[in-house]
Amino acid sequence: MGNIFRNSYLAANLTFEDDKITWHCPEMDDTREVMMEWETPIMNKMAEIAVSAGDHVLECGFGMGILSNAVQARNPASHTIVECHPQIIVKLKEWAADKPNVIVKEGKWMDLLDDSQKYDAILMDTYVDDDLHVTFRQFCETKISSNGGKVSWWNFSGGTTDQWMKFYWDNVTFTEVTGLNPPENTYYNRDNYFIPLKNLSGTRKTLNGIVTKLNDVDVIYNDSNSSTKNLTPITANQTILSCEDPTNPNLIVKTLDPKPMYMRCQGVYNINNDLLAVTGNQPMLIKRSGSWVTKNANELVVGDKLYKVDNTEVEITSINFDSSNTVYEIIKFETDYNYFVNNILIKKGGEDA
Ligand SMILES: C[S@@+](CC[C@H](N)C(=O)[O-])C[C@H]1O[C@@H](n2cnc3c(N)ncnc32)[C@H](O)[C@@H]1O
Asked: pLDDT by residue (tens digit) across 299-337?
């Protein structure tokens, strides 16, 4: 239904009135509001809490341009607005014509994932948007400035408890707007509303971990054969093999708890042509000059040796740093013990820095 609804919206002939934009939804045989003027206090407050002068701002969904005006009033360095409905794109271009710091992007916000532009503030207020709850969090974590930034979005529930509208982030703060008194409509009829805000720390921090473009890293888990298992289906409370010390190579069975985390990062060290792809600050156990020592991945050199599960050593023959803007999945165990990836011993933990 979601896609039908969205396609139907994108093809719809919208009705523009002074205080609202509406469309007729054939599937529902119903008239729906895309945006209404009563939201102005919410939009103003959202800009106030999320945007500072000099920011590079990304706004998703132009609608009536109420939030766009509020953002402009805060003097952003640049103000990118992405919009997908053809009629609203026309309105957006008219509005932007005399605003040199506005960059218009036609299409969906998801389309921006692959360009390298980063933002200090990301404001999301879209409509019939199926991508939202699946990818918005990763999108923001990828697109936020390396110095960190703020994210705010339309709060579907209006309250403070709905996990879905929090996009599964912790530490979302809320600013209440009261006295709204909306005219009856099909989407929000309460007098108060809570604006969510998430402070993101930014990608200047490189998350440590083992990364793969392919989600095909094998971890050794414990069954009778100590089989390898693809990381993707591994969940909490499975057992994997660990080894604390290559000089005393006892393989220990540990319970994996909680499950691996999948995150995004950019820039990885590719060791021995895809044997491992590792972020710079991931600690590694290596043998150098005859001794096992811990070095971060960005300190490894050709000739260092890695520890293999069969108690042999694998010499590092190539290290290539991939600094492209490729978005990787990163896999990081929240464990207190070492583990094996693609048969190679990976050191636990490490500071994200
Ligand atoms: C609720 S309105 C935005 C209202 C706006 N904040 C304002 O203050 O007027 C939602 C807008 O998002 C646009 N939209 C919906 N899905 C989108 C997507 N995936 N990418 C970009 N724009 C989208 C819609 O066409 C519509 O213009």
From this structure: 899 999 999 988 899 999 998 877 654 445 455 565 667
Q: Which of 46, 58, 60, 152 to mutate to test the pocket of ligand 1 (most atoms within 8 A of CB)?
A: 60
CA distance linking residue 76 with residue 265, whole number of Å? 27
CA distances (Å), origin 241, targets 196, 229, 231, 249, 259:
41, 11, 14, 12, 15
* Phi then psi dihedrals of residue 161, to 5 deg: -115, -15
CA dihedral 230, 202, 79, 77 (to 10 degrees): -150
Domains of the chain in sequence order: 2-200 (3.40.50.150), 210-346 (2.170.16.10)
- 286 CA → ligand 1 middle, Å: 51
Residues with beta carbon inside 6 Å of ligand 1?
34-35, 43, 60-67, 82-85, 88, 108-109, 125-127, 129
Predicted confidence (pLDDT) per residue in 152-188, tens digit: 999 988 888 766 666 667 788 899 999 999 999 999 9
Distance 204 CA to ligand 1 centre (A): 30
Q: Ligand 1: which residue has its CA nearest to atom 3?
A: 63
Closest residue by Cα to residue 227 from 216, 236, 218, 215: 218
Please tell me the residue having the least CA distance from ligand 1 atom 25: 85
Q: Which is nearest to 195 in space by CA: 41, 42, 38, 36?
A: 42
Name which residue sits closest to atom 2 of ligand 1, judged by CA: 63
Mutate to test the pocket of ligand 1, among 22, 36, 71, 85 (most ligand atoms within 8 A of CB): 85
- Distance between CA atoms of 30 and 289, rounded to whole angstroms? 74
| Closest C-alpha among 47, 21, 38 to residue 195 | 47
Q: Whose Cα sits closest to atom 20 in ligand 1? A: 108
Q: What whole-number distance in Å separates Cα of residue 243 and Cα of residue 254?
A: 10
Q: What is the DSSP letter of 112?
A: G
Amino acid identity of residue 33, one-letter, is E
Instruction: Please give the Cα distance from 274 to 279 (Å, whole number).
Output: 13
pLDDT in tens, 263-289: 555 567 889 987 887 877 778 899 999
